[in-house]
Amino acid sequence: MTFSASHDTQLRMFVAVAKSRSLRAAADSVGITQPALSKHIQSLELKLGHPLFRRHGRGMQLTPDGEALFRTIEPLFDALDESVSHACVNGPGWGLSLRIATVQTLVGHFVPTLSKELLRLYPQVRLSLQCESSSQVVETVLRGIADLGLTYSTDVNAAELECVDLHSEHLALYHHKRSDVNRAAISRLSDLKLILPPRHFGVRRYVERVLGCQIQPFIECNSLELSLRMSAISGAIAILPEHVPRDLIESCELKRVILADIPPRRLVAFWRAQNSKPVVLDAAIEVARRTPAEQ
Fold first, then answer.
1. Superfamily for 171-263?
2. How many angstroms separate the most distant Cα atoms in the chain?
3. Whether 149 contacts 106, CB under 8 Å
4. At what angle do helices 5-20 and 34-48 cross, to 10 degrees?
5. The domain 97-168+266-290 is classified under which CATH number: 3.50.50.60, 1.20.120.1760, 3.40.190.10, 3.40.50.150?
6. For the chain: N or C, fewer Cβ within 10 A?
């Protein structure tokens, strides 16, 4: 049996009468006239096909069917009312959650800015942030473990995913200020002492695809911050996206040289294709589109 909004009202009226055991007291509590309340109860009994109350001079007594209905729906209305009350008190986002999977190179600048704006819009939303390689970010979203993925377009090609472009990003070399990295050296990238992540990371695959050969790094490292620090102490050169936070670069006494001759990659936000997206996911996508590439 399907109930409409009017039946929901009738059930609310039924609960009020069941609690008050009096039409008059219940009518006062819900703010309608006694005849109008009586009509709601009669309509509900007609819909269900059996009486819910025995009327007598002292008020209204539940029938066995009425008692069973009351015990079933009264806790449901209490829980619903409590949820609405919490939402009013706690503000937007209460009870909502969003799981974001991202590549680590976005953790230092893009993701914190996106999260800050999202929490401003939905202060009570529960955020879950996961850092993975590009391929793992895609797999995490495909499997429904994350709601939103942030990585590069070269890694997102599944038909089950929808995506939106955010911005373009060049790769860059990060080396110690005292080391000499000139244009001639840059033209022979594969000959340099490089710091790169493992091959299942998008940066490594992209560099090898552009150079047309596999690279054996001097140091293999899957941490952005550790790659920078290793560059500072080893004299090796880290290849990372251009938008590494400036404070990290300066703290390691490094220089950044953007590889302008290598085509940039497009950062994208993506999610599983679905008929309708949760409001918080829609908001996160829009915030991601507005978030600048560099702070």
1. Periplasmic binding protein-like II (3.40.190.10)
2. 102
3. no
4. 110
5. 3.40.190.10
6. N
Confidence of residue 185 (pLDDT cuts 50, 70, 90): low
pLDDT of the residue at 22: 87
pLDDT tens column, 187-241:
677 788 999 999 888 888 888 888 888 889 999 998 999 999 999 999 899 999 9
From residue 99, alpha-carbon distances to 125, 130, 140, 164, 186 in Å are 10, 8, 10, 17, 39
pTM score, whole prediction: 0.64
β-bridge pairing 97-103 and 53-56: unpaired
> What's residue 130's pLDDT?
92
Q: What is the average pLDDT across 10-27?
A: 87
Q: CA separation (Å) from 208 to 86, 104, 161, 190, 201? A: 53, 19, 26, 9, 11
Contacts of 294 (CB under 8 A, 6+ apart): 109, 243
Beta strands 237-241 and 194-196, pairing class: parallel
CATH of span 5-90: 1.10.10.10
Report how far apart, in Å, the C-alpha atoms of 157 and of each of 15, 162, 277 are. 54, 9, 20
Average pLDDT over residues 64-87: 75
Position 183 scores a pLDDT of 56
Q: Which has more pLDDT, 180 or 11?
A: 11
